[in-house]
């Protein structure tokens, strides 16, 4: 079995929609395989990737399209003609982020990539590179982007390591709210630990606790009883458990 090649990623700043169409068509025709194109607005009449699905648009290739407002049967049909090769390009929103497997697809083009987080970009890139041959991921952005956005895109083009991306994502966004619903930021103030940088120490502490409870689940041993008393003292003073460090 041939070894899978890493997906090559590049960030580009388009002058207009014509570059997007050109990039997709070039890669598709060169490889004679399929290409994903991800956009955030499923409107055929708005300039952008979805506009290529408009029947009035002249092209020599077939385009399928998928978005969250489609009925299930229409979505299945559009996916099937892309997977079979009847359509060469699938224009979609992020509904294809997970659960889509088209090994023949070799190109992923993401419009307005600056609007997506690292984890989402990595998931989308994972839709290609599943078969043989070289695959590509093109991240299209606006000309003016923030420093944080530039760091995200630079990381995406530098590595395909999901663990490295997840770690960088947490460092950039923060771990979120352990007790609440916030998915980013640091809403609590740990006195010692930093979840973004002390992950290994936190894991070691967790492993140590698991070993203690496996050996003495009731904390009945002398050492276990001492821990139980200390936890009881802490519990009588702590009301906000997110303050524990």
Task: Describe what is shown at a glance.
The chain has 245 residues and is an alpha/beta fold.
Key words describing this protein structure:
7 helices, 6-stranded parallel beta sheet, 38% helix, 245 residues, alpha/beta, Rossmann fold
Q: β content, as a range?
A: 5-15%
Query: Mean of the pLDDT scores?
Result: 76
- What strand line-up does the widest sheet have? 1-6-5-2-4-3
Domain count: the total is 2
Which helices and strands, and how do they pair?
Elements: E1 8-12, H1 17-31, E2 34-38, E3 63-66, H2 72-83, E4 89-92, E5 105-110, H3 118-125, E6 136-140, H4 147-158, H5 162-173, H6 199-215, H7 222-237
Task: Write up what this structure looks like.
The N and C termini lie far apart (49 Å). 38% of the residues lie in helices and 12% in strands. Helix 4 packs antiparallel against helix 5. The protein has 245 residues and is of the alpha/beta class. The chain folds into two domains: 153 residues, Rossmann fold; 40 residues, no CATH class. The chain is built from seven helices and six strands; from the N terminus they run βαββαββαβαααα.
